[in-house]
Amino acid sequence: MSQISELKKSDTKRDGKKTQDDIVYAHIFDAILEQRLSPGTKLNEESLGEIFGVSRTIIRRALSRLGYEQVVVLRPNRGAVVACPTIEEARQIVFARRVVEKAVMELVCDNAQKKQLEQLRQMVRDEQACFDRGDRGAGIRLSGEFHLLLAEIANNPPLLSFQRSLVSLCSLIIAQYESGAKSHCSYDEHFELIDAIAGKDKPRAVSLMMHHLDHIEEKLSLDDEIATDDLKAIFSHVRNPR
User: Fold this and answer.
1) Which H helix or E strand runs over 75?
2) Domains, the chain, ranges and CATH?
3) Interacting residues of 51 by C-beta distance below 8 A, sequence separation 6+
4) Distance between CA atoms of 59 and 45, rounded to whole angstroms?
5) Is the pLDDT of residue 229 over 70?
6) Considering the entire predicted model, what is its pTM?
7) pLDDT digits (tens, 9 = 90+) for 24-53
8) 126 in the Ramachandran plot: left (φ > 0), alpha (ψ -120 to 50) or beta?
9) Which string of b and e fits 214-237 if b means at least 16 CB within 10 Å?
10) Most buried by CB count within 10 Å: which residue of 12, 65, 107, 209?
């Protein structure tokens, strides 16, 4: 994951083409995908402002975006926390993910270009390399980003927006409710999906995706997966310009 080399004090300054709140949002979003932020973690505006070297206004903007995507809960007068889905909410999210993924796969089979297929393959190779070297967090993030890239290729902005929320929520659900060994074979299933897309085989692509989601759902239980809620430890890679 890329590091922040500099965050200007002015809210209007940009890092490349990204605003300060874009950068803060991306770091928090990635921390959720990598399961470094556990469900229920309090996101203290003052602490985050110190970590990223920005004003609380910038932090609020980023948290508001995450709140819109439902991965952060904004509590009036009590601050923001990482969403902590209940069992029933988890079931609803997984169901919604199935509906969206089916539509995405059908569109991807119609729209995917050769260059995009290679981009997907490279992402899965990177995902596999992360798991092979024991970097589980980065592997999980790339697994989620694979599904987001599929939604981009589908070329349907509303679906992509919905998918961003669902993928990050599913990461929280897995962090909260996954049980058993932490072995992952997502990259094998991802390669199979790419082959089906390349052959424009919609029924097989949809079937493989549903099978892939079955594997995710089968690993869920009522057991919590504990992660640190130390914000400074989670964002220790960020270099504060102050």
Assistant:
1) strand 72-75
2) 14-84+225-234 (1.10.10.10), 87-218 (1.20.120.530)
3) 231, 232, 235, 238, 240
4) 6
5) no
6) 0.78
7) 999 999 998 888 888 999 999 999 999 999
8) alpha
9) eebbeebeeeebebebebeebbee
10) 209
